[in-house]
Amino acid sequence: MTRIPHETSGEPNPLQALTLDQLRRRTSMKWRTYPEDVLPVWVAEMDVPLAEPVARAVTDALHLGDTGYPAGTAYAEALAAFAEKRWNWDGLAVERTAIVPDVMLGVVEMLKLVTGYGDAVVVNPPVYPPFYHFVEHMDRRVVEAPLGADGRIDLGVLEETFRQAMAGGGQAAYLLCSPHNPTGTVHTAEELSAVAALAERHGVRVVADEIHAPLVIGGTDFVPYLSVPGAERGLSLMSASKAWNLAGLKAALAIAGPGAGADLARMPEEVGHGPSHIGVIAHTAALRDGGAWLDALLSGLDAGRRLLADLLAEHLPAIRYRPGDATYLAWLDCRALGLGDDPADAFLHHGRVALNSGLPFGTGGAGHVRFNLATSPQVVTEAVRRMATALE
Ligand SMILES: Cc1ncc(COP(=O)(O)O)c(C=O)c1O
Description:
Number of domains: 2
Strand order of the largest sheet: 2-8-7-6-5-3-4
Radius of gyration: 20 Å
CATH architecture of the largest domain: 3-Layer(aba) Sandwich
InterPro entries: Aminotransferase_I/II_large, Class-II_PLP-Dep_Aminotrans, PyrdxlP-dep_Trfase, PyrdxlP-dep_Trfase_major, PyrdxlP-dep_Trfase_small
Enzyme class: lyase
Pfam family, one: Aminotran_1_2
GO molecular function, one term: cysteine-S-conjugate beta-lyase activity
Distance between the termini: 49 Å
Structural class: alpha/beta
Domain Aminotransferase class I/classII large: 74-386
CATH superfamily of the largest domain: Type I PLP-dependent aspartate aminotransferase-like (Major domain)
Shape: globular
Bound molecules: pyridoxal-5'-phosphate
Oligomer: single chain
């Protein structure tokens, strides 16, 4: 695939638009979970204003009272056009898509289509903690195939895990996180083709969570799972929610490969009643008209990850940080600090800075924290200063 360079949009960096006082007036999880004196750099919310095209679309809808039920395929069409422009992928067939309330509920519905009670769902830890909670809540078994020491999918481990997952009979699915949260790893076309071949060989169905797909920086290409050979029976979940900070405006898309259209067609109609019409309007506007804003964000995130690397090298050199090429999340190996399995606890209590503990991310999470970079350089700097104070 040819890489489409980020356009130079002339848009200001949205990560520098809001002051800390403005952010503290927010009532969302990031800002209301901890007391006021704690600096939050944890949950995946971004410290940005709404992109102007999204704000306009939502405001117009509100003025019109256009607050009924969602209809039509505008969201899927906007995503198909975005995929073609950004990833050079023209294989997203609007007729093989369905709106779902959000990505995690979409994951649950896709897993219900291809597995039954007690079946195995393979994940690559360390990985986004709800992969465990949601899968266990639906009475499937989570089976771990840990990432390699390089933060990439270990195909040998994956194959062995597929074999074990299928050993007792029944069905199995592989919940792929692409790009990977928390490491920011962008899987290559070769890796994804190898995954597809392994899944086909062992009869494992692939459900790809591609929510971070628009958030790829650093000259790397995002490769949609459904674009690789052999992935025809795959299912994917995409959404504008991470890249444009729309988690509060619920809507996501389930996408089926050509060999999975019949599965998606079995998804109960009620699921499509979950996304909000305003959410669909917002996500559609983001994908259709939010490209320049996204480019400005990506430039800001690229600067942010370099700033974090520099600050850690200066103030906390024992922390190992390998900047990933995607997401706005930084996965920090704090094992050399001597803070035990849960360094986030020490940073919170002694530094008054809230990071995600690595423990819920599964095998490989102990001794790690996740740092949310989607904020201003001032907040990144202050967060590292507070982390360093925790060690004094
Ligand atoms: C990999 C991944 N999947 C899903 C989600 C949550 O998405 P949603 O709010 O659409 O369920 C997140 C949020 O950070 C995520 O990182």
